[in-house]
Amino acid sequence: MRTVNFELDTLRSFATGIDLGSYAKAAAQLGRSTSAVSAQLKKLEEQAGVVLFRKSGRGLALTDAGTTLLAYARRMLAMNDEAALALRGASLAGEVRLGLQEDVGEALLAWVLGQFIRSHPHARIDVCVARSAQLQRRVATGQLDLAIAWDAGAEDARGEHLATLPLHWIGPGGAAQAMTTGPGPLPLVLLEAPCALRDIATDALDQAGIRWRCAFSSASLSALWAASAAGLGMTIRTRIGLPPALAPIDPLANGLPALPTIDLAMHRRRGDDSALTTLLADLLRQAVHELAGAGRPAAHPPARAASLTSC
Fold first, then answer.
1. Can you tell me the distance from the alpha carbon of 204 to that of 209, in angstroms, rounded to the nearest whole number?
2. Start and end of every HTH lysR-type domain (predicted)?
3. DSSP class of residue 210?
């Protein structure tokens, strides 16, 4: 039986198109023409010897065989990328001080840090999980080398754009209707000020003429999730890091105003051109693109050489 050797470039185009929901977007992200990606997918289907796609409205959806191949493609690409990282910097040593916004921290920590430390055993990462404004200040003052944060501040504080994500009203599912149709002000669960998402929520309600009250306020995102799940009030976040007990609420069905998008950005300490920081930045950039494109990085064991602080 002839052995099939799948090409990694083709598998990357295949997986990226699924992550982004569009092969035109995948072509743009990968620096290829749409016709070149189409030719890759046609060749991939010929190599596989099975139908990978089926018509779904105006687009394409995966068949069972396509879903199976996608799982293997992700594993092969992850191994390839980890090997490339290892070869680029296996001998690199030093420390990187990384800041992560709470929402993305949990989603990125295990996968990114685990892969990075396995590829760079002599490196050390000190991680600070904090609010976006704090992270931006710490990068600006040289206390952090790299940070991933919501970009909702002044123009001069903006970093490298990574993704634009929709904001959602979040609630405990069935209790949302009771919250929005009750006789009193709409109860909200909010992070303590200053908080960009807090301002977005209250401004949207004020502009819509909807009365609201702060039913719960905390500096902790985990406390916010717990209060929302308990039915104390609604909040707004992206889908990243959303606990299973909570769900996005349809604004139209519940008389709520539509919400804007928010940008996620990478901030880097001025003058830091170290190879170690650059490699970590590349890995974070890739992981954020996966999160933003409906995919989720595969989990890996957390790294022992990374230290975590809440600051």
1. 9
2. 6-63
3. -
Q: What is the 3-state secondary structure (H, E, C) of 44-98?
A: HHHHHCCCCEEEECCEEEECHHHHHHHHHHHHHHHHHHHHHHHHHHCCCCEEEEE
What confidence tens digit (pLDDT) does each residue in 141-181 have?
999 999 999 886 555 556 888 888 899 999 986 655 556 65
Closest CA to 169 of 135, 210, 131, 133: 210
| Cut 0.90: pTM above it | no
For the chain, the maximum distance between any two Cα atoms, rounded to a whole number of angstroms, is 71
Please report the pLDDT score of residue 167 as a whole number: 94
Distance CA 124, CA 126 (A): 7
* Mean pLDDT, the chain cut into blocks of 10 residues (311 residues total): 82 88 85 90 90 81 91 88 67 81 78 74 83 90 92 66 91 64 84 89 94 92 91 91 88 90 91 83 83 50 37 46
Q: What is the DSSP letter of 234?
A: B
For the domain that residue 287 is a member of, what is the CATH number? 3.40.190.10
**What are the distances in angstroms from CA 191 to CA 154, 164, 234, 245?**
20, 21, 12, 19
Residues 297 and 155 in one domain: yes
